[in-house]
Amino acid sequence: MDSINRLELDVVTERRVDPFLMSVLKSRFEAIVREMTLVVMRASRSAVIKNARDFSCAILTYDHRLVSVEDALPIHVMSMDMATRPLTDLFDDITQGDIFLNNCPYTGGTHHADLIMAMPVFFEGEPLFWVVALSHHADTGAPVPSTYLPFAKNIFEEGMHFPCVRVAQNYEEKKDILRIGTMRNRVPDMWLGDVRAQIGACRTGERRISELFARYGCDTILGFVEDWFDYGARCAKAAIAKLPAGSYSYETRHDPVPGVADEGIPVKVTINVYPEKGEIVVDVRDNIDNVPGGLNLSENTATGSCRIGVFNNLDESIPHNEGAKSQIKVLLREGSVIGKPKYPVGTSVATTNVNDRLMIAGNCVFSRMGAPYGQAESGSHLPAGVGVISGADPFKHGKSYVNQVFVGYAGGGARYGFDGWLTYCGPANAGLIQLDSVEVDESMYPIVIERRGVLPGSQGFGEFEGAPATGGVFYPLDHDMTIVYAADGTSFPPRGVLGGGDGKESETIKLRAGEKIVLPAFSEETIEDGARIEFTACGGGGYGDPLKRDPKRVAATVNRGWLSREDAETVYKVVLVEADEPGLLQVDEARTSALRTV
Amino acid sequence: MAYQVCIDIGGTFTDCLVSNSKGEIAIFKSPTTPGEFEKGFINVLHVAAEGYGLSGADFMREIDLIVHGSTVSTNALVERKTVKVGLILTAGHQDILVLREGPRKGAFQWRLNYPDPYVPRHLTKTVAGRIDARGRELAPLSLDDVRKAAAEFRGLGVEAIAVGLLWSVVNPAHELAVREILEKELPGIPVTLSHEINPMPREYKRIIAAAIDASINPIVRTYIEKLKTALDEEGFEGELLLANCVGGMMPLAEMIRKPIYSVMSGPTLAPMAALALSDEPDIIVGDMGGTTFDVSALRDHQIIVTPDSMIHDDSLGIPKVDVRSVGAGGGSIAFVDEGGLLQVGPRSAGARPGPACYGQGGTEPTVTDANVVLGIVDPDYFLGGKMQLKRELAEAAVDKIATRLGVSRQEAAYAIYTTSNHNMVAAIEEITVREGINPRDSFFVCGGGATAIHIAEMADILGLKRYMVPRFMAGLSAFGGLISDIRSEESAVLLTSDADFNVAGVNDALKRLKQAGNNFLADAGVAPENRQFEFSFLGRYEYQSFEIEVPFEAKDGMVSESDLPGLVEAFHKMHERIYSIRADNDVVEFTAWKLRAIGKRSGQDIWQKNTLPDQVGAIDLKARRGIYQQESGRVETVPVYELAQLRAGAQLAGPCLVEAETFTAYLKDQHQGQIDRYGNLVVNIA
Prior knowledge:
The complex is a heterodimer. By secondary structure, chain A is an alpha+beta fold. Chain A has helices spanning 2-13, 19-43, 47-50, 74-77, 81-90, 175-183, 188-216, 218-240, 299-311, 322-325, 354-365, 438-444, 551-559, 565-570, 589-597, and strands at 55-61, 66-68, 99-102, 114-123, 126-136, 163-169, 172-173, 246-254, 265-274, 279-283, 328-331, 388-393, 399-404, 447-455, 469-476, 481-486, 507-512, 515-518, 522-527, 532-537, 576-578, 585-587. In chain A, helix 6 runs antiparallel to helix 7 and helix 7 (188-216) packs across helix 8 (218-240). Chain A starts with a helix and ends with a helix. In chain B, the strands form 9 sheets. In chain B, strands 13, 14, 15, 20, 23, 24, 31, 34 and 35 form a 9-stranded mixed sheet that branches. A 6-stranded mixed sheet of chain B has the order 3-2-1-4-11-12. In chain B, helix 11 packs across helix 12 and helix 12 packs across helix 13 (409-434). In chain B, a hairpin with a 6-residue loop joins strand 26 and strand 27. By secondary structure, chain B is an alpha+beta fold.
């Protein structure tokens, strides 16, 4: 009660702008980021941006504090400050109408395929904000046609790096710089179109913030920003104050990748929780050194993912601004696979895979506090169900096609009170990626999706269950199809916590003439005409003792077709009988309680 | 006297708008009767009869036409009180309604359960058999599987059946064969086929529409039959038309055949009203009621149809007039959160207990309470004085916010007012920016009881230059029903591209559409000279996964090879308009062809017959009232006018208030109002 009263006192005494302006300007800044997001969405060309929403926009103060990130992918924005900070270190002549490009992990970028576009916003000659648009580009001119290169040991085996480069001056594009980008690109028109979409978004953001200055005045806007950060800090502190104090650790492991990490990559997270200060310190210094491949994280993604794990465990209504962020401190080590990479090691896969595992560890470490905290491990990335397929389309006179499909992806881990989210995909996507329509895929590519759906019994059991795995079979029509995938979770499937069971592992199988050929977890494969590929994307881990699961939930899962009656009885010790409604089962209370008390 | 009537059933009131042969329009209201909507329907007709000094029977006999926006299907869906549906899907794809296309959630939103499918697992059966994207049969339909499903449905007590097989839109043979068996095995059970109800090549949307359609089929049929019986008993001999969700009217038989078209049809009439009220190309329509703010728009003076409407956790599947709803109404509740930020809604005090000032036991501060404290709403003249509001209760409720924020009562009220305005502005920007409409160049038409209180500030925030408060703002949807046309949408899937254009196939599809449209209009009794057809196609660039709708002209309902460049250019233009880019070198794919069949009615001519005399001399001042002004921080006195006293051409200078029986309009400084010859208040901002 005391702490609440103190908070109220803070509200009244530390205010810089009228309370009505807080709500008003908060919604104005959100609207600006939303409009920037729409500009990118509308003007971009590549499917990965448009369909998979693999882009984000943000507004930061000129001294690199995060103001607003509506609708963004968390991994893009939780440490966006790192991508703009070098600009003010490296340039002493930043002027109105400049736009900068940064995709270099050694100058604060996420990974080489995320081009970060940043534009300063001036008011009466003073630089006051940054507007930022980040897009994942389809190609960056790497030696092989992919932006995820697990075997690329260093930056010389990656795509083009732009380590904070001015691409526009006085609102004019610098054609020479853009020429460097288009020359080294397999799809130069698409690249340039997507870059211009980002430029358009920045200019929209700049214009709208200038309008806000004109309308409300500089002092009000800057005063609001400080109040807004205070508000974010207060919300985060209040949420952290409710957590039990202590130091907690969790370790998970990324699958082996031959030649890069033959034993897999352990990922260890320790958090120190200080409820009285409303602060959490995330320590990932105790991890192995950089690996000779693209799986190393960048400083940007390592920092961001450490914060995302924490935010996933706090109330969702907390504004994800600088104030809230500042209550979460991150400790990294230079030269660690999870830390600041040692120049010039490769980081091309820094936003998925090991990074997914880092977020998973961050989600799960809270479970060390015991129920109701934390969550179980979720599935991770790039099973064959979201592979990149290519070939020569027999229905279009052999025209070549290449694209990533989203036929089926991994399930989410359970948390206290809730079963895992079925269409999860991976921690970096936060359940936001669209699942492909079978008919749209089949009309676009010469393939048939024979089956696709939930695999019953594949979820991690528990008081709360992980989401079941999604699996399927698809095949090329009248041609040979190539597929590239990187199915983490094949060797180390998602684990349950606090007594919960593990989710099913990822699987990749070729079906050919009655034969079942198990394929490697990380590979490029040809599926010949007449052959089919079968995939399983991981199920999520369970949370808590299955014997504590509410028998009604068990009955509901059986009725949903996700659990057999036998498993209900053996795993959950719940006996079911025919319900009054035909076709449904219900709990046999007496026999269940007898079975459960044995 | 020949009357035309529109009855719109709302959550609280059933509205009845009546137009007489002189074009004079009157609004009547009667409480809605949930569970037995037809009672409220008949009741409000009796209220109207009384208003004209007629007996119920005399009034009924003189009504030529009743158009009706029913809520029976929407309510059944919202309250999840639909009938038991059996669903038949293609083997290997039993989870189409489970997976959807990945349900929407927030990035940091994890405290939620994955939504259950619209049709539960035990009522979902699969049958072997497969058609591919080109319509070829990869595996024959298993008739045994169908018979087995039918037998199981019989045991399960299924009341309606939906059938959704992959690629039925390209080759319907399997779906048709399934129906044939079901009709034999389960006579009397209605069957909805996905390719008939929603022919689009995107299985989740097509099949969820079939499932929803089946689940309300018996409900809509029963309601229509009861309504017809009740009207027969009252001696009504005119015509009855039902509003659909594509912005028009349908005859009863057609609605019984496609009941899903009645879902959320009421709110879609608001943009239809705007279509008639103004000739402006781009119009935003905002309708603020007790719990929600509904926003819709016209682009190039055309209604916008969206394939993305939602009901609970599911898509509605069929395209419908785009109306978006946010939880911002007069009853929306204000609170201060843990971090000290004021928030308004989406929780609402609803009609019961309602805002604190209603004196019905509500104590939480609402937007209406704030409006009373600010002085915009006169507690003694709410609904024309029919309902007395209690100012002291409004003040007590708003004081709670004032204390938490440490500001004065009036500052707190203004904070609630403006926060609510910004919530609505966000909803307006959502639809306009997404649809390529610039709010600054748009005209705004107000609907619903509360919008005119808020429009002035919203207009300033949005940079709008002009807005209209229609005379019948409070019954805008009913007005839209009164004047709208008969309308139906037909579509056919035909995949082709500009690289390999299938002229014969397209013409075959267009011919079938035209036939279907003509049949629809003939059934609705529309004379050939009043029939109008609008063609469009759904197109995309190769490897894009979302289509956009592009209207085109088809001479005699056909296209030829020489029309192709025009079709392609129309696609590029629309793509540029919506997504701001065009790709002239990309292949353009056509996925579906659509026809809108319209039967023109004379609704427009009728209401425009009635005009106001010109204003002569100065306008009468009704009163002066103090309103809290945020800019000066003071209560300032502004003039109040009574709408009923104003004549055509009357000029009003803001700040001022205009009161009518069903609404209050607040004009801010620099807002210049003028009454047009139909009695609407049109405002220009200097």
